[in-house]
Amino acid sequence: MTTKSYIFNINELNNEEQKxxxxxxxxxxxxxxxxxxxxxxxxxxxxxxxEEEENEWRFELYRFLRARKWNTTHTIKSILEMIQWRIxxxxxxxxxxxxxxxxxxxxxxxxxSTYHGHTKAHLPLYIEKTGQIDVDEILNKFTNDEFIQCHxxxxxxxxxxxxEHGRQFGEHIESIACIYDLNGMKMDVRKLLNPGKQCLYxxxxxxxxxxxxxxxxxxxxxxxxxxxLVKHFIDxxxxxxxxxxxxxxxxxxxxxxxxDSDQLPSEYGGNCHSCATSPDCIPIHNQxxx
Length: 290
Known about the structure:
- This protein has 11 helices and 5 strands.
- It has helices at residues 15-27, 29-41, 50-67, 72-88, 98-110, 135-141, 144-169, 193-206, 223-230, 236-239, 249-258; strands at 113-118, 124-128, 176-181, 211-217, 242-245.
- Helix 8 (193-206) links the parallel strand 3 (176-181) and strand 4 (211-217).
- Helix 3 packs across helix 4.
- The protein starts with 14 loop residues before the first helix and ends in a 32-residue tail after the last helix.
- InterPro entries: CRAL-TRIO_dom, CRAL-TRIO_dom_sf, CRAL/TRIO_N_dom_sf, PI/PC_transfer.
């Protein structure tokens, strides 16, 4: 049963937005129904709640409308493409796919990361030591398709986590916050540029407005060169959500403006005591089988 405090309220839109929302909703009604029937046929472990699914669908339309600048034609086209992409790639089953789960666990050993509580706005918080990614090991262990599959798994897990946080805090939460620590990054990360661009394409086309905030820490001297390679592929709205912090007191002070101290590892200025490994909250795995 959907909690009333985060039911989609069309009255929060202005009159013009309400008209465009209704237009998109009505135009996609039959396609939405057939997609819902498809999902029921998958016999997922977590049974679908039709009322919650309907509520999430309305928020989905709202996200796509915002991302497509309220152009109804582009929005409808984008959503139809998104639904077909999900069916073709069996995305609704990926979190129950044991092989995908195994690959994701393997990937996390090469890209040290963790989900670490939430921000003050209750967004799930993901922290990654991006500068310590073992690029060669990733390229050795994963095909390009498997790398992309890991990213889709990560996205779906984020969506699930955001929904769970919504239930926990009694409000609609549709996005997540990320901290990427670039300390130690080397130029070999350029080898991941091509699959990275494919990941950005998936983000923009199938998961719009899912990023709430991205904070980049400890940018190395090579960062401007790397940023110039990728910034042209990032949506302008997404760019506005990116904050780059240099080393020094600025980091902890700024992070604590958005994240409560007990939700932040001590190395970033917090005082987390909830992790079994704290103060080392982010596991680092040594890769020996190269």
